[in-house]
């Protein structure tokens, strides 16, 4: 299910679009790519805007890149608007549906940000409700344009579940599970949502992949059925060090076949990270976010940040520092979660591809 990974990792690429950047826009577009690669997102956004203007507003790669950067900058409304422009200019219904998926995802992300109050976005229930309606409208159109798109179906199901339109949501999840492009793990998740739509309410965890310290790969699919505590930390973070014993102790409290501690280090130095993990004898799945991609996906702005998600890939708690009862949340989720089949335990982690 490659596009589910691409879409939720915010690395969008409309597969059926092969249009070239117009000559007048090529320099600005290339500059945008360099800035984006260097994580200078504001400069990248400005360059892509310039490229789009130079093209007279008709440059599919410019719109594609601009929507991606806006999403990574958490400018969700802007990203939705750009994705809508991309849909309007897409050359066929499949590409149009992919762009509408992106528009729906941006509105859905804005809904959660407005529901909770996140970063620079204020808590605003009235505007959140409108964002949810906008997400549903975009995804409904995407489904009309490409009824066989399993990614649109899955996200549409989540949106409908959040709106408490359970019967419609169940139909979407059933259709997603039956689609040929759905991975076995995503299929099982969709089937569970179809039977009990309440399980799908909440913020879906973005699809991701990360390399572990020993060179293996951990992903959302590899964690299917498990309760996961993600810990974003740094060796220079005083509070991370203070809380480390508490976080590590959870590995002794819960069954390692059903609970996973995913440690995500944010140090610039790989050597500093490895030395610290070895010196402190840290356990759990150890990864390092050298590309800053995971921080962007999980909306991390301070350290330590903790995110707990359940076996169905739904975020159930988010905290900066030890706020609330992380152990209690994990215990509650494990008590209500079905047992993980023995063969599913082999999914974590898998060897990295050569």
UniProtKB/TrEMBL annotation:
What compartments host this protein?
Cell envelope
State the UniProt keywords alphabetically. Cytochrome c-type biogenesis, Disulfide bond, Isomerase, Redox-active center
Note whether Cell membrane occurs among the keywords: no
PROSITE patterns registered for this protein in UniProt: THIOREDOXIN_1, THIOREDOXIN_2
Show where the Thioredoxin domain sits. Answer: 199-342
Q: Name one GO biological process term.
A: response to stress
Instruction: Give the main location.
Output: other
For this protein, the record's Pfam families field holds: AhpC-TSA
Does the record bear Transferase in its keywords? no
Which Gene Ontology terms cover its molecular function?
antioxidant activity; isomerase activity; oxidoreductase activity
Cellular component (GO) terms are:
cell envelope
Instruction: Extract the coiled-coil ranges from the record.
Output: none
Instruction: Write down what this protein is called.
Output: Thiol-disulfide isomerase/thioredoxin
- Can you name the source organism? Granulicella mallensis
């Amino acid at each position: 299910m490659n596009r589910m990974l691409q879409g939720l990792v915010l690395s969008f690429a409309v597969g059926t679009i092969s249009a070239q950047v117009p000559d007048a826009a090529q320099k600005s577009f290339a500059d945008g790519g360099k800035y984006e690669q260097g994580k200078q997102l504001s400069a990248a956004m400005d360059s892509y805007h310039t490229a789009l203007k130079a093209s007279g507003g008709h440059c599919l790669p410019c719109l594609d890149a601009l929507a991606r950067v806006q999403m990574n900058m958490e400018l969700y409304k802007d990203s939705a608007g750009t994705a809508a422009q991309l849909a309007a200019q897409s050359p066929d219904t499949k590409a149009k549906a992919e762009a509408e998926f992106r528009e729906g995802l941006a509105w859905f992300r804005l809904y959660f940000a407005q529901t909770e109050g996140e970063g620079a976005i204020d808590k605003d229930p009235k505007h959140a409700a409108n964002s949810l309606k906008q997400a549903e409208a975009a995804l409904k159109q995407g489904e009309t344009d490409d009824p066989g798109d399993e990614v649109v179906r899955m996200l549409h199901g989540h949106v409908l579940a959040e709106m408490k339109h359970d019967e419609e949501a169940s139909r979407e999840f059933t259709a997603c599970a039956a689609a040929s492009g759905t991975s076995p793990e995503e299929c099982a998740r969709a089937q569970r949502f179809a039977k009990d739509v309440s399980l799908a309410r909440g913020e879906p965890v973005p699809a991701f992949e990360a390399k572990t310290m020993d060179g293996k790969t951990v992903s959302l699919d590899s964690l299917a059925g498990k309760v996961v505590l993600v810990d974003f930390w740094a060796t220079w973070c005083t509070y991370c060090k203070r809380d480390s014993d508490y976080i590590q102790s959870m590995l002794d409290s819960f069954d390692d076949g059903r609970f996973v501690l995913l440690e995500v280090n944010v140090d610039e130095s790989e050597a500093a990270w490895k030395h610290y993990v070895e010196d402190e004898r840290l356990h759990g799945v150890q990864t390092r976010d050298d590309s800053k991609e995971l921080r962007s996906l999980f909306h991390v702005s301070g350290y330590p940040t903790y995110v707990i998600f359940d076996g169905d890939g739904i975020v159930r708690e988010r905290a900066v520092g030890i706020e609330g009862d992380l152990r209690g949340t994990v215990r509650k989720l494990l008590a209500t979660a079905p047992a993980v089949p023995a063969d599913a335990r082999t999914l974590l982690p898998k060897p990295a591809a050569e």
